[in-house]
Amino acid sequence: MSDAQIQQTLAELVPPGSRVLDLGCGDGAMLDYLRQTRQCTGYGIEIDDANVLACVKRGVNVIQLNLDEGLSMFEDASFDVVLQIDTLQHLRNAEVMLLETVRVGRLGIVAFPNFAHWPNRLSVLKGRMPVTRRLPYQWYDTPNIRVGTHADLGILARANGLTVQDSFGVQDGEVVRTLPNLLAGTSVYQLSR
Amino acid sequence: MMIATPQSMHFEAALALQSGAHLRRYDLSFETYGTLNPAKSNAVLICHALNASHHVAGVYDGHSKSEGWWDNMIGPGKPLDTNKFFVIGTNNLGSCFGSTGPMHRNPDSAKIYGADFPVVTVEDWVNAQARLLDALGIQTLAAVMGGSLGGMQALSWTLQYPGRVRHALVIASAPNLTAENIAFNEVARRAIVTDPDFHDGHFYQHGTVPKRGLRIARMIGHITYLSDDVMNEKFGRQLRNAVLAQADNTAAHLNGGAYKYSTQAVEFQIESYLRHQGDKFAEYFDANTYLLITRALDYFDPARAYGGNLSLALGRASAKFLLVSFTTDWRFSPKRSREIVKALLDNQRDVSYAEIDAPHGHDAFLLDDPRYMGVVRSYFESIEVPA
d(Cα B336, Cα B47) in Å, to the nearest integer? Predict the structure, then answer.
């Protein structure tokens, strides 16, 4: 699934005019897209110097911050939507950040690679960790320190008393609602408190 | 090299100060770089910190080594590009580089002000800068920018004249000074005030200069502008003896030099460096100015009128902000910049914040870190200059 496809599919989940906080916003492309196509405002959070620079170049508001330090800078329900796109799997404090996402945002949209997608299962059955387009890293150099499945996130969310507004998979730019834990490389959750 | 030309503007109308005192009439020194466009929409004001001046960029004609203090940042093709922007550097009231200060004559008493120069605040400086802009025919600034104490002025601009500033760049600054920070200022002030040559601030008529006090003030300042790591890397435990021996190519440096076993001689390189910095500073800086400017730092606290609530205080600001801090800056730490960022977020203001992992401590804001320069350059490139 390409960045542009992820971007478009997820952008459609963001109500027009929303105030958005994008955790791990990368080069700011998503916020820029939301601003131009859906009249959204807001900020990105990034730790990487090059990405911070890219955001400033685009004129996207960016706050340089390590998400592992938490979101104490942000008040409760101060955003309509908090995005966590391909960020959760990099965070040491993934569970805390999931809670922080729905504390700061009225709606949290979380997308991350689904480790239970069938090619990954097949790979593990063959005795090897998966290396795919969606998970392109070798086991010894992957930045993905939290490897979970579509089903796992649902269990974690419910265990923390979060409301799952919607959840589905995305594969090849298409929404997957049938057996997403098996058939989708990307898992998407819409969460609230 | 861009040639800079110092200018001065005289103001006949009295300036009411925050303390209740007045400056009956005064002069402001300033320099400008680049060209003000016909719409007057490309003006950028630079506010200086403790010991700097209106000479921000360029060199004086015939003096190739007289670069302005932020020459790496400002000029043709530089991060703040004078081909696009009209940049104004001003010298603050109470300073010692041309604007009215304690070494000038009080029009009321016809005597040199000395210690009687009224206490000036960041807010007073901003008011004086606004009058300078009035005189230059500039209603709205494309941006105001400053580092450290200069950043406090930039922040104050957005609160005192929210309608006159579109962007604020607040670098290595803070919403107020911490107790530790005030403490450093107080040590510096005591060094000056207790120098027998200070004569209660009226040393001009005694023909003395409290150089001992100024040297110590500068030495302690310098320590706080650097990081432990940079100081160790630059000087470590190196002995002055060994360095001299190396220069003379004698054998003494091979064992790292011998201790002098003296309590007063310059023994370590860091001592030599600090003394050199102190000596240089005492030659050109005014003791009363040092007291005034450190006091302005101590007093700055926009949240004070709001029960300490910075978010309430910054509610007045409507500018867009760029904040930059440096991880090893312990005098104006990233934590303090984040307080400003948070208060702006609470008010839903446009703000970007870069936390640069530079080793140089507070001094980093004057140095050439490419990440820092890149962010500032990109920010200025994104500022529109309507025709």
Answer: 19
Chain B residues in contact with A70 (beta carbon < 8 A):
none
Q: By CA distance, what is B379's nearest residue in A?
A: A56
Assess B340–A contact: CB distance below 8 Å, yes or no: no
CA A130 to chain CA mean position, Å = 20
pTM of the predicted protein model: 0.95
Nearest CB to B375: which of A19, A43, A56? A56
Which of B356, B51, B74 lies closest to B227, judged by CA? B356
CB atoms within 10 A of CB B206: 11
Token digits of residue A177: 């609602």
A to B CB pairs, distance under 8 Å: 50
Secondary structure of residue B308 in the 3-state scheme: coil
ipTM for the complex shown: 0.94
pLDDT, tens digit (0-9, with 9 covering 90-100), for B136-160? 999 999 999 999 999 999 999 999 9
Element (H, E) at B89: strand B86-90
Interface with B, mutate which of A32, A47, A49 (most B CBs under 10 A): A49
Instruction: Calculate the CA B322 to chain-centre distance.
Output: 18
Q: Which residue on chain B is closest to A79 by alpha carbon?
A: B348
pLDDT in tens, B31-73: 999 999 999 999 999 999 999 999 999 999 999 999 999 999 9
* Among B38, B39, B9, CA closest to B25: B9
Query: Within 13 A of B250's CA, how many CA atoms are on the CB side?
Result: 10
Beta strands in chain A (DSSP E): 19-23, 41-46, 62-64, 79-85, 105-113, 163-171, 174-176, 186-192
- Tokens linked to A99: 């809670």
